[in-house]
Amino acid sequence: MKIDKIEVFVLRAPYEESYWGTHYVMEEQTEMFFSDYSAAYPLMVRSKPLYEPALQTVLVKITTDDGVVGWGESKGVVAPQAAKAILEEMVIPCVIDMNPLDIALIKERMAGLMRLRGHVQGFHQEATSGIEIALWDIKGKVAGLPVYSLLGGAFRDRIPVYASGIAGLKPGHTSAHVEQLQKEVRRAVDCGFQALKLCIGKGVQTDLASFDAAREAAGESCPILVDAGGRYDYHAALRLARELEKRNAFWLETPLPVDDFQGYIQLSLATSIPIANDMIWTTGMICEMY
Questions:
Q1: Alpha helices, DSSP H only, in 191-260?
Q2: Starting from the edge strand earliest in sequence, which strands make up the sheet with 163-167, in order?
Q3: What is the pTM of this model?
């Protein structure tokens, strides 16, 4: 069996309403975010993340010479055409005609293409993930088994989900803004979500006001997760974490710049709240390093 054809499709669906991440960039930094601006890591002028005003993704379709088709998804939150170009111009020519069941070998070949220029995160890794997922789809179809069986079997038969992307308050918020936040929270709960995630990162006190407003609307039994978008230095993040501990927050996501490895380790040791970072610990290789 050989890989005969690989097709790449970019999908885009504009948001109907304004979203927390829409054209999201850092405002001018103040003491709200940093206890000592001169010590911030990295310099915040380098930390202006962008989100586009649409849901975007990249689908990968692999067809074998036997006619087996596998589908995968590459991450394409920002500039999905970049992932498409990486696949079509660099990756696909190097994996055509390989055996799709040799997943480990193909992964090594794809990583090797950028080993001198960075292969553990960024557009290249996000693009090649779609290839790997499609290969597992093919392997499952050939074996006549669901992919989870090939990966060790089922761990659970139900997966809890949470409502994500609920916009938190901004500095200078009014009672009307609080009411709007609570309306979104109640809507998520009414839709059946048993947990929710707030997008925060607007200053410690403002973030705590967001959490308290959401808690009032959701009730004490609803788990509340928060995502600070990498907007704090260690000391401000620790203050936030300590206050969220008192409020029984479920987890605190990306409170620090995503590549502040040591900061995340220290923060995890200093607080009882689980600290999440899905932006850089994305492969087994990175996890083994830390």
A1: 204-218, 234-246
A2: 163-167, 196-199, 224-227, 251-253, 275-276
A3: 0.82
pLDDT digits 0-9 by tens, 220-234 = 999 999 999 888 989
What residues contact 33, with CB distance under 8 A and at least 6 apart? 44, 201, 203, 231, 232, 233, 236
Contact in structure between 47 and 257 (CB atoms under 8 Å): yes
For every residue of 16-41, DSSP letters joined together read: SS--TTTT-------TTT-SSGGG-S
193 touches 161 (CB < 8 A) = yes
* Cβ-contact 91, 127 below 8 angstroms: yes
Task: Tell me the residue ranges of DSSP E strands in the chain.
Answer: 3-14, 54-64, 69-74, 163-167, 196-199, 224-227, 251-253, 275-276
**pLDDT (mean) for 197-204:** 92
- Asked if 72 and 130 touch (Cβ cutoff 8 Å), the reply is yes
Q: How do residues 62-108 score in pLDDT, each as one tens digit?
A: 999 999 999 999 998 889 999 999 999 999 999 999 999 999 999 99
- Token digits for 86? 């990486």
Eight-state DSSP code of residue 279: T
Are 135 and 106 spatial neighbours (Cβ–Cβ below 8 Å)?
Answer: yes
Q: At 86, which helix (H) or strand (E)?
A: helix 80-86
- Record the tokens describing residue 64, joined without a space: 């074998």
Q: What is the radius of gyration, based on Cα positions, of the chain?
A: 21
Provide the β-strand partners of residue 196.
163, 224
Which two three-digit tokens encode residue 250?
A: 């479920």
Q: What are phi and psi of 253, to 5 degrees?
A: -100, 140
Domains of the chain and any CATH numbers: 3-150 (3.30.390.10), 163-289 (3.20.20.120)
User: Can you give the length of the chain in residues?
Assistant: 290
